[in-house]
């Protein structure tokens, strides 16, 4: 199958997945107890105000009609109003998504760089002390949830040893750059504001690391195991026989095929960074979409809940497609349509 | 030479690892430049005369919409009201210099202060008051419920005289006016967008999400959803300024304990929210220069008995539990700093009855009451279902205490943890409402009538504020009669009589009078309400007004190093 038709098929399938997700989320958000209009306006709000809000949100209509109005709105870019922030959900998402994306992107960079590095080192020094150290770090890193790491980081770096900012996106008194992409690091670079870039980068470091540590070590273990498996293959023995230096064998011939199993997991892990970001954002006082989503769930903000989950679903789907493309690139059998 | 090459090879990998660890720990973000830059930031922000306070959320600063704690603090500082709540419970003239009431109590006429400026320089007139009230009535959101059933009409008699006509006589009307924040009509009208309110469009709701149209001592500089509200001093405030008053304030929307502790240590937060746990407050208290303030603002933790469901439908059964409950353990051990509640109304609310005989733990009396109950011989058949709200973990302590106290009488209590959303749904019907529910309730305005009406009048059944389903016609009539009484003394007398009746019906165990605890930087901040509390004096129970920042003082030179 050609790559572009493969891609097209995946995209079409994704639309079905998203529609399915939208129906499930729509129903779940509405069967959760509590009248959202009443909750938004408070127990003492006069009935006329509650009724008006229910009507505005189409809550007075059957579930099917509610879905119709909602999906019609989504199709035209109107995600409805948030009951908590009192403004358009799309506007909220546009404001909060970049903060999370920036965090997840930096985490993803950490995951990619360090997992490959640690995985390769562990394989290269299999059963030596380097391998043992990385293994111990891996057990710890995978076992400790990211929000626990987040609390530890805030207490250590915010409280005991304040060498690096532990809260928020920018230091007090630092003016954010003009918003172009919403990503402070990119925007500050584009506007040539290097002090702000440096400040934003420093703020990203701890939350991104708290999110990344689990996936880094999970991936590192997978890479290590794939590499040690591949080391026993004939082509490696042949390369050694030809006298090719070790680092070339590792970097050029071993790494690429060994990354295939890791890349699929890495893709999912990177997508789940957004989910893990829920508590991490709360702890680091990070104004991202995960924190927004959490508040929406606690306060039954229907439109916000549905929108946040659809956005997360969309990102999952896109990351999965991207992962498949990368795997196809790494594995010629897939790229060239061969049978596995 | 060969050895050196081998050694070098051996050192490469450990070297890389060491370098990486160093990068992770400090190099990448910390470094010299980082810490040098970080330090001036915190020092600089500490040098500002600013009050930063954490709250559960970033406020809704639209006076027609916001009503939670954070919003009430913001509104009290961004807007002015006709009257202002003093700490001693009285109301003082504010935008209104004086007022008079018609003999039937249905017409209230207020004379306005001349020369009051809005933040944009416009003068505040009676038209603005009319507009603000009409907006409240139309929206029906936020604190609008205080007025929708009460105010019939509002009109400007001239530029500085405004008249309210009420639908019915309502004694506490003046008290509720501390929630009528006066908006600049012209400014709002200049910013309306299309919306559901006819020619008023969206009534300026969209614009007022991030802007203010007030005349209060502070004006909005920046509102970032999920982050903070930042407001700065309005230099031309009609009330004038003390030179040590804060130049700005910030309400930060977070209660995460690690975040709060970090900010307090770095002197980047002056006052914490009230949601910090006992342990977190103890840790904050250990930071040099930080103290903990405990204020009584009228909130009571209630164990509400469903009076329409067996066995709590029986008054003797309820009284048995009320006598069995260990009030001392609650205030001494579980919630130190709180105090015993005497009855349905907190002692800080005007109209509270100090002569009530509260229930005390007395197992003999409890057994005697239980013996009179129709369920006495069939206790096994009637276990009590006790629900506590999952989002407030402290309530579990109370639930478990009652469970163990009740066991001493042979009453079985099943403790259930219920998420808030489910709880709100559940208590909408008497048959679904648990036998007992632990719920904190605060007054809506500063008078006993507020609590009596929202807790025990039949119209509040079906809401989380009344899980008792009391539905007592005599109590309803008495409450209605009391709140329609104009004469304050007579009104308070009636409130006191109602409190006695309610105590006798024992629909509730009033577990304790909650102390709202907040850590604050007592070294460099003067917080008038906290000082009054230290002197044993009362402070206002009108939510938000304890944080009227204009009366605070900040001394940046006293910030501990």
Automatic annotation (TrEMBL), chain B:
The keyword Transport applies. Its main location: membrane. Residues 91-457 form the Solute-binding protein family domain. Gene3D superfamilies: Dipeptide-binding Protein, Domain 3, Periplasmic binding protein-like II. CDD domains: PBP2_NikA_DppA_OppA_like_7 (cd08512). It is a lipid-anchor. It is found in: Cell membrane. It comes from the Bacteria. Keywords: Signal, Transport. The keyword Oxidoreductase does not apply. PANTHER family: OLIGOPEPTIDE-BINDING PROTEIN APPA (PTHR30290:SF9), PERIPLASMIC BINDING COMPONENT OF ABC TRANSPORTER (PTHR30290). Belongs to the bacterial solute-binding protein 5 family. This is Peptide/nickel transport system substrate-binding protein. It comes from Desulfofundulus luciae. The lineage of its organism: Bacteria, Bacillati, Bacillota, Clostridia, Eubacteriales.
């Amino acid at each position: 199958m050609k790559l572009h038709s493969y891609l097209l098929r995946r995209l079409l399938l994704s639309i079905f997945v998203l529609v399915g997700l939208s129906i499930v989320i729509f129903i779940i958000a509405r069967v959760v107890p509590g009248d959202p209009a009443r909750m938004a306006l408070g127990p003492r709000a006069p009935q006329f105000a509650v009724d008006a809000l229910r009507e505005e949100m189409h809550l007075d209509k059957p579930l099917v009609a509610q879905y119709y109005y909602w999906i019609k709105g989504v199709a035209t870019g109107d995600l409805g109003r948030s009951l908590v922030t009192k403004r358009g959900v799309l506007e909220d998402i546009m404001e909060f998504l970049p903060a999370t994306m920036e965090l997840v992107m930096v985490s993803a960079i950490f995951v990619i760089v360090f997992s490959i590095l640690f995985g390769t080192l562990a394989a290269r020094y299999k059963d030596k002390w380097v391998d043992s150290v990385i293994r111990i770090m891996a057990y710890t890193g995978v076992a400790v949830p990211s929000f626990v790491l987040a609390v530890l980081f805030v207490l250590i770096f915010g409280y005991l040893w304040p060498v690096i900012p532990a809260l928020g996106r920018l230091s007090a008194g630092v003016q954010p750059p003009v918003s172009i992409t919403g990503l402070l690091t990119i925007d500050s670079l584009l506007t040539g504001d290097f002090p702000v870039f440096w400040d934003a980068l420093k703020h990203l470091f701890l939350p991104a690391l708290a999110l990344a540590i689990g996936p880094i070590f999970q991936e590192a273990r997978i890479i290590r195991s794939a590499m040690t498996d591949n080391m026993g293959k004939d082509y490696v023995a042949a390369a050694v026989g030809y006298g090719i230096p070790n680092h070339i064998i590792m970097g050029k011939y071993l790494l690429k095929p060994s990354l295939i199993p890791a890349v699929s997991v890495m893709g999912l892990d990177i997508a789940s960074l957004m989910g893990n970001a829920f508590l991490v954002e709360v702890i680091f006082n990070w104004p991202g979409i995960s924190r927004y989503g959490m508040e929406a769930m606690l306060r039954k903000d229907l439109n916000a809940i549905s929108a946040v989950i659809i956005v997360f679903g969309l990102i999952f789907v896109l990351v999965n497609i991207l992962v498949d493309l990368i795997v196809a690139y790494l594995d010629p059998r897939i790229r060239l349509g061969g049978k596995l | 030479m060969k050895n050196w090459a081998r050694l070098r090879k051996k050192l490469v990998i450990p070297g890389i690892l060491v370098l990486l660890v160093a990068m992770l720990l400090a190099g990448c973000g910390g470094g010299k430049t980082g810490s040098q830059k970080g330090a001036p930031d915190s020092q600089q922000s500490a040098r500002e005369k600013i009050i930063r306070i954490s709250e559960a959320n970033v406020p809704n600063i639209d006076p027609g919409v916001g009503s939670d704690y954070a919003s009430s603090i913001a509104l009290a500082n961004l807007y002015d009201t006709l009257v202002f709540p003093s700490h001693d419970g009285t109301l003082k003239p504010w935008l209104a210099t004086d007022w008079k009431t018609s003999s039937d109590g249905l017409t209230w006429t207020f004379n306005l202060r001349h020369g009051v400026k809005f933040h944009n320089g416009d003068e505040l007139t009676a038209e603005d008051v009319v507009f603000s009230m009409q907006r409240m009535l139309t929206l029906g959101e936020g604190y609008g419920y205080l007025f929708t059933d009460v105010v019939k009409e509002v009109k400007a008699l001239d530029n500085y005289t405004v008249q309210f006509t009420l639908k019915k006589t309502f004694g506490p009307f003046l008290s509720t006016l501390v929630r009528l924040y006066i908006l600049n009509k012209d400014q709002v009208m200049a910013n309306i967008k299309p919306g559901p309110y006819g020619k008023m469009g969206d009534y300026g709701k969209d614009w007022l999400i991030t802007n203010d149209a007030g005349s209060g001592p502070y004006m909005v500089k920046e509102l970032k959803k999920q982050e903070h509200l930042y407001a700065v001093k309005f230099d031309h405030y009609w009330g004038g300024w003390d030179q040590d008053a804060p130049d700005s304030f910030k309400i930060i929307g977070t209660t995460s304990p690690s975040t709060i502790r970090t900010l307090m240590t770095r002197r980047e937060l002056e006052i914490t929210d009230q949601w910090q746990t006992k342990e977190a407050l103890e840790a904050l208290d250990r930071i040099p220069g930080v103290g903990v303030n405990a204020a009584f603002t009228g909130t009571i933790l209630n164990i509400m008995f469903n009076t329409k469901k067996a066995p709590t439908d029986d008054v003797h059964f309820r009284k048995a539990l009320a006598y069995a409950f260990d009030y001392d353990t609650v205030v001494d051990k579980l919630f130190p700093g709180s105090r015993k509640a005497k009855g349905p109304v907190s002692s800080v609310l005007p109209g509270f009855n100090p002569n009530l005989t509260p229930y005390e733990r007395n197992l003999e009396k409890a057994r005697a009451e239980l013996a009179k109950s129709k369920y006495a011989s069939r206790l096994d058949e009637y276990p009590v279902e006790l629900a506590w709200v999952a989002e407030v973990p402290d309530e579990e302590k109370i639930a478990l205490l009652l469970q163990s106290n009740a066991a001493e009488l042979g009453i079985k209590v099943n403790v259930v943890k219920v998420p808030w959303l489910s709880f709100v749904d559940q208590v909408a019907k008497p048959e679904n409402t648990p036998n007992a529910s632990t719920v904190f309730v605060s007054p809506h305005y500063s008078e006993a009538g507020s609590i009596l009406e929202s807790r025990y009048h039949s119209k509040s059944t079906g809401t989380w504020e009344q899980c008792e389903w009391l539905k007592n016609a005599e109590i309803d009539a008495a409450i209605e009669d009391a709140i329609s009484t104009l004469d304050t003394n007579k009104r308070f007398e009636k409130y006191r009589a109602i409190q006695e009746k309610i105590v006798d019906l024992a629909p509730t165990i009033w577990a304790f009078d909650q102390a709202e605890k907040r850590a604050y930087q007592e070294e460099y901040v003067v917080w008038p309400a906290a000082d009054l509390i230290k002197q044993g004096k009362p402070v206002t129970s009108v939510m938000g007004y304890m944080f009227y920042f204009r009366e605070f003082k900040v001394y940046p030179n006293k910030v501990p190093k």
